[in-house]
Specification:
- The chain has 16 helices and twelve strands.
- With 490 residues, the protein is of the alpha/beta class.
- The chain folds into three domains: 65 residues, no CATH class; 257 residues, Aspartate Aminotransferase, domain 2 (3-Layer(aba) Sandwich), CATH 3.40.640.10; 126 residues, Aspartate Aminotransferase, domain 1.
- A hairpin with an 8-residue loop joins β11 and β12.
- 42% of the residues are buried.
């Protein structure tokens, strides 16, 4: 870390001097005696908090310096496969900040929040139409939370039918990474089945895996290899024939939105990642949203409440049936994210959403074809919104996919997903989304080609990367398990 970087980082902590103030608060108009009556003594400080005493300019410079170290879709290309890190339109932010959405309370009287209820109702209807489902809940706070919610409904459905022995969830080895964990959290066992030579569900392996103990198959379509499960109708027939249900992981919906619907493929439950497909803030910029849609036979088990339209045209919370799995999120979901997603859907309309998917697929296939001569391609055929490459050809130079990812940082690019899915050696999974221009795609492609050439001529350059980042290469296992969070870490 350079001297200037250390100074930036230490400002807030080491420039503290008694008497410096960065804020001005109004005088408290509540008498101290009333304060002590309102606040239990156990919650009152005996002495002031030990906070740094600095000027406002010091605080602003400190946090601005930290923000410049962050990488996001607003300052660079983010081709993170399976995560759909697309640009977040600022129109969505403007809509979510309107007083009628941003300054209401979820426990207000229904008559005073009719606009918010109408938005949620319309979003439920839009998502149901997009996915081919009958009913939708907006409560889940993220994709994995949606998975768990859907699985809990599947569990409740089987138990209601007296089939308590259905405790196994089938997951292909090309499934989204959170599927097995979500199944386990919902009280199921997981059974993993291998892909066939084309990277699709092996039908014979599926037939061997299903039985009277099968609760559901969790499937991402297109799968994590970016390939569409062409035999989805037969897959649905196999699972339904054994009495199981089909769960659709919506992580890859950006490939089929407006073109194909999971409900028409035979799926019974669907979750959508609004922070992926609908362009709302993602990860640290979140929170997320993972609405779940179901076919009518599962509707009684939906988390309550949902939003209903009454006969007089007004909107109200529907408390659901006695079979509901109950509330899964405080209030009614991450409302600000729902507003952003609704704005996105209404801005594009049906034809626009279809064009989004078409452009995402076009971008991925353009990148795939340009990069195929430089990497091994385990599935060299038309993909959907993302594709996988293998960096195994670089092992002869002592270079791994991790080294390629670290070197990309030196050129200002966020690396793609690496080492996932697990069934591709030295995997790179790249998803460009529809929001990037050809110039951006070409710049990234050219950089990857340059890095491959560096690997053959100067592998040490990659092994020592990143060279320009404020934080150098870490012991990633220890960084995750034992992070050092103080300001002096290098």
């Amino acid at each position: 870390m350079s001297g200037s970087e250390k100074k930036e980082q230490s400002l807030i902590f080491e420039l503290s001097k008694p008497g410096r103030i960065a804020y001005s608060l109004p005088e408290c108009d509540v008498p101290e005696t009333e304060l002590t009556d309102l606040i239990p003594a156990t919650y009152l400080r005996s002495k002031p908090a030990e906070l740094p005493e600095v000027y406002e300019v010091d605080v602003i410079r400190h946090y601005t310096a930290l923000s410049r170290r962050n990488f996001g879709v607003d300052n660079g290309f983010y081709p993170l496969g399976s995560c759909t890190m697309k640009y977040n339109p600022k129109l969505n932010e403007d809509t979510a900040s309107l007083d009628g959405f941003a300054k209401i309370h979820p426990y207000q009287l229904e008559a005073s929040i009719q606009g918010a209820l109408e938005l949620m109702y319309r979003l439920q209807e839009d998502l149901a139409a997009l996915t081919g489902m009958d009913r939708v809940t907006l409560q889940p706070a993220a994709g994995a939370h949606g998975e768990w919610t859907g699985l809990m409904m599947i569990r409740a459905f089987h138990e209601k039918n007296g089939e308590t022995g259905r405790r196994k969830i089938i997951v292909p080895d090309s499934s989204h990474g959170t599927n097995p964990a979500s199944a386990s959290s919902a009280g199921f066992e997981t059974v993993t089945i291998k892909s066939d030579a084309r990277g699709l569900v092996d039908l014979e392996a599926l037939k061997a895996a299903v039985g009277s103990d099968t609760a559901a198959l969790m499937l991402t379509n297109p799968n994590t290899l970016g390939l569409f499960e062409e035999q989805i109708a037969e897959i649905a027939e196999i699972v339904h024939g054994a009495g199981g249900l089909l769960y659709y992981d919506g992580a890859n919906s950006n490939a089929i939105m407006g073109i194909a619907r999971p409900g028409d493929m035979g799926f019974d439950v669907v979750h959508l990642n609004l922070h992926k497909t609908m362009s709302t803030p993602h990860g640290g910029g979140g929170p997320g949203a993972g609405p779940v849609g179901v076919k009518m036979k599962l509707a009684p088990f939906l988390p309550a409440p949902t939003v209903a339209k009454l006969s007089d045209g007004t909107y109200a919370f529907d408390k659901g049936s006695e079979d509901s799995i109950g509330r899964v999120k405080a209030y009614y979901g991450n409302f600000g994210i729902l507003v952003r997603a609704y704005t996105y859907i209404r801005s594009y309309g049906p034809e626009g959403l279809k064009a989004v998917s078409e452009q995402a697929v076009l971008n991925a296939n353009y990148m795939r074809k340009r990069l195929e001569p430089y990497f091994r391609t385990p599935y060299p055929r038309i993909c959907k919104h993302e594709f996988v490459l293998s960096g195994s050809g670089l092992l002869q130079y002592g270079v791994r996919t991790l080294d390629v990812a670290k070197r990309l940082l030196d050129f200002g690019y966020h690396p793609p997903t690496i080492y996932f899915p697990l069934n591709v050696e030295e995997c790179l999974m790249i998803e460009p989304t529809e929001t990037e221009s050809k110039e951006t795609l070409d710049g990234f492609i050219d950089t990857l080609i340059r890095i491959v050439e560096e690997a053959s001529h100067d592998p040490e350059l990659l092994l020592g990367a990143p060279h320009g980042a404020s934080v150098k290469r870490l012991d990633e296992t220890q960084a995750a398990r034992k992070p050092v969070l103080n300001c002096s870490c290098g």
